[in-house]
Specification:
The structure holds 3 protein chains of 3 kinds. Chain A is mainly α. Helices cover 76% and strands 0% of the residues of chain A. Chain A has 2 domains: 2-64, no CATH class; 79-328, MetI-like (MetI-like fold, Orthogonal Bundle). In chain A, α1 (2-20) runs antiparallel to α15. The relative contact order of chain A is 0.14. Chain C is globular. Classes of the chains: A mainly alpha, B mainly alpha, C alpha+beta. Chains in contact: A-B, A-C, B-C.
């Protein structure tokens, strides 16, 4: 219910932003010589000659049929365009989330467990650097070192030119190439996604590391851990059952925000790596005032955010019964 | 009833006295904690260094003219040397000079964005948290909508509707940034308003305004301070992203994100155009983050959202 | 982790190396970079340079421009026009096949013109006001115009003939009761089909990444270089100059298009495996001055700008190899007047003009707008800014998104004092510049931000369009160019050299003075 409210609000907000973009996207799409009549015709076809509220109603009505309107830029339906570009961005963000989880969480746990050790100090540095470096800088410097300097990673794109695309099943090249049993394409796709996904993940890694560290050290200081130890419960059992499980809750709850910030980072990083994804499409749309496309992209991002938060809430409820009870009451 | 009233008012003044004493005490302890923490000291000095450099830019840079209307195409693309520490750019201007002047833009951006959005966010957060009910519902749902999109994307969408000047970029970022402060203050207010001294103030008939600004706001001060420090870094980060995408300062003004954006076109041969401004941004944001972290420890803030 | 990635990379390198090796003996694959997305490959809807390039290669028109800009037969074997210039008759070549094997007929040509006029997109503006009726008789097609239009023949190079049967087989409901939407929606979605007869077919299209064209074996002009011709062209969307350069260096990129910066080409020219070709394009860069906005509504201010421009810095340092320009028509276009007045940098003369202005001594700041991402235009603006600063005049520079610039151009109030843009030829005739930039009917586009609206200029342009006698027309053109330069609506800076970096083994690159016709893959072959 609450998520729906956010989405409705978001759609209104986006609609307003898209429509106050001054000027005439129809003229832009038709090229410089379009006559007034040609422009008027296209505007009519896009429903732009109707009052704003009717346009909004029509737009929302369309959304329920999966129709996001026509893109001026590609002259075809925005849903088609997004369906084409979304998997690339999804893959990128997904891999970035995996980086955050497999680097940030273990690192944070170790840093919290061995507070003030050299590991903890390194985690601090990683956290601060991760949060302070703009993602496009990570991308550019990464390119400079690994692509131009050492020549071991490709500079841009999802796949080398000479590698044929594996047949599209999921749209995620890493999975598709595995399904097709094409290991050279798999390796190629991995080497392409390595830098951009890390560039996107840096902020998240920094945040999650610090948060996990904090909550682990909090939990460790709790009396019940001492008590459990005093009762002679095996150390490993204490670590997993009493320490790790509760200390995952704070990082888990901000995972939704991490996801949103990674999507934001994708807007910069896809630009740096020529990653043919939705963020790049979105930037083009914004530059060309292709407002149906702008709205489509922003709506999808909002939708993804709401969905991820929903999943996170469910997971948090699973890990922490208190949250579940609180929500039920 | 009347007897009760007088007790309450005397309790009120007592609280003020003890609060002041504990404040002095706290400052002393806080400063001790702050100065013992090498990280926050480092952050503080980094930020201070940048601010001083930015203010004194015309006096400390070797070629202050290069920050303004100046071209010297024949000395373009010189690698770092003794006369040009960070090399020269595609127009022949000294990159070091422009980086220092570029700090002015970043700091200005942080100051303006936070200057607009913080008071606005604080006010709405106080109102929402204090009054509750449908007022709170409306305000907080609006912030939820804003938070459903990454700040950069939102700012980009707003920005593209106007001329891509730094002023418009600041407004666009400010237009979304208030939500964070609003949420922070809202949650603090909600927890504080049930405390005794607020209830006491209510009972003695203080006006809502007085309670909001005299009783509740001061108790948010340390959280706000930490939040602002950390936010300064984030705003600079978002600003750099926007100008990297072409929504930044107008030439010939130097902006760090814009410099990286132009410079990255000349990678890898003219690496200095990208590397030095990148490092400069990193340095400043890191400074703010370290400082904010230090302040948090010092003021012992553990509020949600900081 | 580290060791595994090293292994992966090593395996990868081996596989890649092997792939390169096997491919070398296979088909001739050409890779080309481009800086912007292909919006469509519909022959009646595309208009920018990438879309035009797709059209030039996938479709055939009745006529085709040669290197001098004259029209040569393509789908038409011969043509004829009545002396009043109202009726043009073309004989359509027989035996030409569309990519689906059916034959190109006069009926397809008629359909194509009707399709263009109905869809009202792409290049249809060229014919919207003039073409009255199209009729077919046997293998001839006749265009009847409602008024003489001197450049008509040249414009037909953009009438890329579409396969009528195929379009109609895929039509969706639309405005026309008979033809529906002319197959427009189908063609906007398909990624493997086209409706052309040109030397290349659309093979694959991965939006945002690449578009692939494959050789059409049955092309009617044949393949004189036989197996040395290009079998497949992969056009890759890459915005970053650095990436393009690296790929060119490694040999992964056969040809780098003309939208990179001078220093990129300079660097690529130094690589041992490739070189840069450069020729004068029909694209002229100018500082377009809004003649309806203060202070540039004053002609002295406009002349001050023209005197303050550092042409030498542009020609020698910013865009080395570019051509000095005189007036609004580039010299590669037949009909260019080489005797019009040409400014040079002279700050004293600039000051004199400034002092004569009605705004002197308090000249309001002048606003110049250039598109984001084009470094050289920013440099020119910075140089002008510096020069004007010595005169005490403020020039504000704003880098705007291209979309925003076209918006600003729609009214004289929103148009900035100066727009730094370049205008290219849609057909090799001075009319393409003069009409689009200065005629009152063409105002409101990014090409006409001068807002000149001068009755005499309008009258002469109209006269030139209906004058069919070449000598008389040339005379009008010459006078027209003089008069326009006299009004000083632009600072004409330079004719853009068109540069492309190509691998040494690529032969046959042929410059033509019409946009995108220089990327005609049929010209090219490999000499390895």
């Amino acid at each position: 219910m609450y998520s729906i409210l956010v989405l409705v609000g978001l759609s209104v907000l986006i609609f307003i932003i898209a429509r106050i973009l001054p000027g005439d996207p129809a003229r832009l799409a038709l090229g410089p010589f379009a006559s007034q009549e040609m422009v008027a015709r296209l505007r009519h076809r896009m429903g732009m000659d109707q009052p704003l509220y009717l346009q909004y109603v029509a737009y929302v009505g369309g959304i329920f049929h999966g129709d996001l309107g026509l893109s001026f830029q590609t002259r075809r339906s925005v849903s088609l365009d997004i369906a084409h570009y979304l998997p690339a961005t999804f893959e990128l963000v997904l891999v970035a989330i995996i980086w955050v989880l497999i680097i940030g969480v273990p690192f944070g746990v170790l840093a919290g467990r061995y507070k003030d050790s050299w590991l903890d100090n390194i985690s601090r540095v990683v956290a601060f650097v991760g949060v302070a470096v703009p993602p496009f800088v990570v991308g550019l410097i990464g390119q400079l070192i690994f692509s131009y300097g050492l020549g071991i990673l490709p500079t841009t794109g999802r796949l080398s030119l000479l590698t044929p695309m594996p047949p599209a099943r999921t749209g995620l090249l890493i999975l598709d190439s595995l399904i097709a049993g094409n290991f050279s394409a798999f390796g190629d796709a991995l080497s392409h996604i390595l830098l951009p996904s890390l560039a996107i993940a840096m902020t998240g890694i920094g945040q999650i590391t610090r948060l996990t560290r904090g909550s682990v050290s909090d939990v460790l200081g709790k009396d019940y851990i001492e008590a459990a130890r005093a009762f002679g419960i095996p150390n490993r059992y204490v670590t997993f059952k009493y320490m790790l499980k509760p200390s995952f809750i704070p990082p888990l709850t901000i995972l939704g925000l991490t996801f949103a910030s990674e999507l934001g980072n994708a807007f910069l990083v896809e630009q740096v790596f020529s990653w043919p994804g939705m963020a790049k499409y979105g930037i083009q749309a914004i530059l060309r005032k292709d407002f149906n496309a702008v709205m489509g992209v922003i709506l999808i991002i909002g939708l993804a955010f709401v969905a991820v938060n929903f999943i996170v809430d469910v997971l948090a409820g699973y890990v922490d019964p208190r949250i579940r009870i609180q929500e039920e009451s | 009833m009347t007897a009760d009233e007088s007790t309450f008012s005397s309790v009120g003044s007592e609280i003020t006295v003890t609060r002041w004493a504990s404040f002095k005490d706290q400052v002393g302890r806080s400063w001790y904690r702050f100065s013992r923490n090498p990280i926050s000291l480092a952050g503080g000095s980094m930020v201070l260094l940048v601010i001083v450099l930015a203010i004194l830019a015309p006096y400390v840079t070797p070629y202050p003219r290069h920050a303004g209307s100046f071209t010297d195409f024949l000395s373009a693309f010189q690698p770092p040397s003794q006369s040009h520490w960070f090399g020269t750019d595609e127009v022949g201007r000294d990159v070091f000079t422009r980086v220092i002047f570029g700090y002015r833009v970043s700091l200005m951006m942080a100051a303006v964005v936070l200057g607009i959005s913080v008071p606005f966010g604080i006010f709405l957060g106080l109102v929402a948290g204090y009054f509750g009910g449908w007022i709170e519902t409306i305000i907080m749902r609006v912030t939820d909508i804003f938070l459903a999109l990454p700040p950069l994307v939102m700012a980009l969408a707003i920005c593209s509707a106007f001329t891509p000047t730094i002023e418009k970029a600041m407004l666009a970022v400010a237009a979304i940034w208030w939500t964070w402060h609003c949420r922070l203050i809202n949650s603090i207010t909600r927890s504080i308003k049930t405390e005794e001294f607020v209830q006491a103030s209510q009972v003695i008939g203080s006006s809502h305004l007085r309670i909001l600004f005299k009783d509740i706001l001061p108790n948010c001060a340390s959280a706000i301070m930490v939040k602002i420090t950390l936010d300064a870094g984030f705003v600079i980060l978002v600003g750099a992203g926007l100008s990297f995408l072409g929504l930044g300062v107008q030439p010939p003004k130097p902006g760090l994100g814009t410099m990286i954006s132009y410079g990255s076109q000349h990678l890898p041969m003219k690496w200095w155009l990208t590397v030095f401004p990148s490092f400069a941004i990193f340095f400043l944001i890191l400074g703010f983050n370290l400082l904010g972290d230090g302040l948090r420890d010092m003021l012992d803030v553990e509020a949600e959202g900081v | 982790m580290k060791r595994r990635s090293t292994v992966i990379i090593a395996v990868l390198a081996l596989v890649l190396g092997f792939a390169c090796f096997t491919l070398a003996a296979g088909p001739n694959i050409l890779t080309m970079s481009c800086n912007q997305e292909f919006g469509t490959i519909d022959p009646q809807r595309g208009n920018d340079w990438t879309e035009s390039m797709a059209m030039v290669n996938v479709y055939d028109a009745l006529v085709f421009p040669n290197t001098a800009g004259d029209m040569e037969p393509k789908l038409a074997t011969a043509w004829d026009a009545t002396p009043d210039g109202l009726i043009y008759t073309f004989t359509v070549r027989e035996g030409v096949k569309f990519h689906d094997g059916s034959e190109v007929t006069a009926e397809d040509v008629k359909f194509t013109m009707e399709r263009a006029l109905a869809l009202k997109e792409g290049y249809s503006w060229l014919w919207a006001d003039v073409v009255e009726e199209v009729t077919v008789e046997g293998n001839t097609v006749t265009f009847r115009l409602n008024k003489p239009f001197a450049p008509f023949l040249s414009t037909l190079a953009w009438l890329f003939v579409a396969n009528k049967d195929l379009c109609l087989a895929n039509k969706k409901p639309g405005d026309s009761p008979e033809y529906g939407d002319y197959g427009a929606e189908w063609l906007s979605v398909t990624t493997t089909e086209d409706v052309g007869s040109g030397p290349y077919t659309l093979k694959a299209w991965d939006r945002g990444r690449e578009i692939v064209f494959a050789r059409f074996g049955d092309y009617f002009e044949g393949w004189p270089q036989s197996d040395k011709s290009i079998d497949e062209v992969h056009v890759l969307l890459i915005r970053e100059n650095a990436t393009v350069r690296t790929m060119f260096k490694k040999g992964e990129m056969t040809i780098v298009e003309h939208w990179r910066t001078y220093s990129d080409y300079e660097e690529m020219d130094s690589y041992p495996n490739g070189h840069v070709i450069s020729f004068m394009s029909p694209e002229e860069l100018s500082f377009k001055i809004n003649t309806k906005r203060a202070p540039t509504d004053c002609i002295h201010i406009r002349r001050m700008l023209a005197w303050a421009m550092d042409y030498d810095a542009v020609l020698n340092i910013i865009e080395p190899g570019s051509g000095k320009t005189r007036g609004p028509v580039p010299n590669v276009i037949p009909g260019h007047n080489p005797r019009v007045f040409s400014y040079y940098m002279d700050l004293d003369k600039a000051r004199e003009e400034m002092e004569q202005s009605k705004y002197y001594p308090n000249i309001p700041p002048i606003l110049a707008v250039a598109p984001t991402g084009l470094e050289n235009r920013r440099k020119m603006a910075l140089r002008l800014q510096e020069n004007l600063a010595t005169l005490g005049v403020t020039l504000n520079i704003s880098m705007e998104l291209w979309g925003r610039m076209t918006d600003l151009a729609t009214t004289p109030e929103t148009t900035p004092n100066i727009m730094i843009t370049s205008v290219s030829a849609n057909y090799p005739d001075p009319d393409t510049y003069l009409y689009c930039m200065y005629h009152s009917k063409a105002v409101g586009t990014w090409m006409s931000t001068e807002w000149l609206q001068d009755p005499l200029v309008d009258q002469l342009i109209e006269q030139e369009r209906v004058t069919l006698d070449p000598e008389e027309r040339a005379h009008i053109m010459n006078v027209l160019q003089h008069i326009i330069v006299e009004r000083c609506p632009d600072v004409y800076v330079y004719v853009m050299p068109l540069r492309a970096a190509i691998q040494d083994y690529l032969k046959g690159f042929t410059p033509r003075p019409v946009m995108s016709f220089y990327y005609y893959y049929h010209d090219w072959w490999y000499e390895k």
